[in-house]
Amino acid sequence: MTDRTHLVDEITGHRRMRRLRKADWTRRMVRETQLTVDDLIWPIFIVEGSGIVDPIAAMPGVNRLSIDKAVEAARMAADLGIPALATFPNVDLDLRDQTGSNALEANNLINRATAAIKKAVPEIGVITDVALDPFTSHGHDGILREGEIVNDETVDAIARAAVLQADAGSDIIAPSDMMDGRIGVIRRALDASGHQNVGIMSYATKFSSSHYGPYREAISTAGLLKGDKKTYYVDPANGTEALRDAALDVEEGADMLMVKPGLPYLDMCWRLKQEFGLPVFAYQVSGEYAMVKAAAANGWIDGERVMMEQLLCFKRAGCDGILTYFAPEVARLLAR
């Protein structure tokens, strides 16, 4: 028999990586990472009123929903197998003030939405954001005093708001404000009020990113924001500082950790998973979503394939799940 050994075989030691890539069945058989519907959390935006489905221009396919329509969306999500929703309120401007006081109203928009969703679709999880930015007249995540976002007073307020959200039926509280000490204070407040079973998904590494613009349009804070959020969000240049932030949240009792934004910070997803071993989630934020949609609309990319590839990359980077506006679209694709 003729020896067909090639120089390539000698160089590689007869190890050819392409052997397992030669057919669809072999690629599927050795695939390391899988994306399933169980990995999806769907963020939705809530507004006052009835029968409202209000498109968000900067986020094609995403709408602001009145509570009745949010309940319908929750039922659809549950039918698709999506485990949980993350809800964000677009509060009437006349209810917003310097301290975000409407966050402390038991019957506010976000709490009424939670109660309605849990009553109608009890099997779906509800994750509520507890930052003050939807409630403040200045668009910041905390209380503004003489040009400063004050830490401790803000923490007191969001801990009270977290208890009210849990009272309304929230399954997981997700503090996104990045104030120091907030995880521990919220955990103590929840436990003291009998909500020991309510989890905390910490926005552990929330960066001062340029990717949030469409979200701020969605909750009507874009025109309100005075200055920037660099005094409390993490500098995008600082990975080690972000890891220290996450470590404090773990010590204070966080059940899950979130990286926000997602794709530009895949290294942080990996570092958090390796360092702490807790469930890690990424938020594929509004700017990430909008870029995919815009490029696909212009025919520059295959939007569906890019969408699925990006979500798979979150999983490969160690994420246990992804908050993504693509969730219903992805769930339908996976079902097919």
UniProtKB/TrEMBL annotation:
The lineage of its organism: Bacteria, Pseudomonadati, Pseudomonadota, Alphaproteobacteria, Hyphomicrobiales. It catalyses: 2 5-aminolevulinate = porphobilinogen + 2 H2O + H(+). Pathway: Porphyrin-containing compound metabolism; protoporphyrin-IX biosynthesis; coproporphyrinogen-III from 5-aminolevulinate: step 1/4. Homooctamer. Belongs to the ALAD family. This is Delta-aminolevulinic acid dehydratase. NCBIfam families: PRK09283.1 (NF006762). It comes from Rhizobium alvei. One of its GO terms (molecular function) is porphobilinogen synthase activity. CDD domains: ALAD_PBGS_aspartate_rich. InterPro entries: ALAD (IPR001731), ALAD_AS (IPR030656), Aldolase_TIM (IPR013785). Keywords: Heme biosynthesis, Lyase, Porphyrin biosynthesis. Its EC number is 4.2.1.24. PANTHER family: DELTA-AMINOLEVULINIC ACID DEHYDRATASE. It is an enzyme of class 4 (lyase). It holds the Pfam family ALAD.
